[in-house]
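Fig. S4 source data, part A: sequence.
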Amino acid sequence: MEKVIIIGAGGHGRVVIDSALCNPNLEVIGFLDDMDTENILGVPRLGKISDIEKFKEFKFHIAIGNNSFRKELSEKVKVENLLTIIHPTAYICSDIKMGKGCFIGANVVINSKSRLENSIIVNTSSIVEHDCILENYSHLSYGVLLGSGVTIKEQVYIDMGEVVKRGLIIERDIR
C-alpha cells in the first residue's frame, strides 16, 4: 500500500482527497495546507505547505489547480516523489503513457496512445481522445473534450466545458 500526503486543501484538494480515499491501494497520511482547516473527510492536516521537508519519507500528490504553483512545488519535492491519483470510475486505455503526480478525476476517459507528462490534472468527466499529448503541469478543468491528436503545451489551462477540435496545438490558456 502506497502512503501519500496531499499538498493543498482547497476545492481541488478536497476532490483529490476523496478520490484517494476511494483507492484501496492508497493510504492518505494527511494533507499540508496554509488554511486553518484541521480535517477533510477524516484526513488530518499535518501542517503548512512549507512543512514539506518534515515528510521526506512519504510520496506526495500536489492537489493545487494553479499550474505555476503546482510546477514550483513539484520541483521542490522532486518529480520522482510524486504519486498519481486516479478515481476508480475513470477509464484509461492500457496503451497510454502517464508521468508522475497526475490527477485523473471521476468519469474521465483517456483513449489510446495518448501521453500525459508530469503533474497533469484531468478533471471530472473530461475526455482525452486518442493520440493526444498533455505536457507537464497542464490542466483540463471538468467536462473538457479534446479531439484526437490534440497537443496541450506545458502549463496550459483549459476551462470547464471547452471543446478542442482534433489536431490542434494549444499554446495558451482557454478560459
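Fig. S4 source data, part B ends here. The first helix runs from residue 11 to 21.
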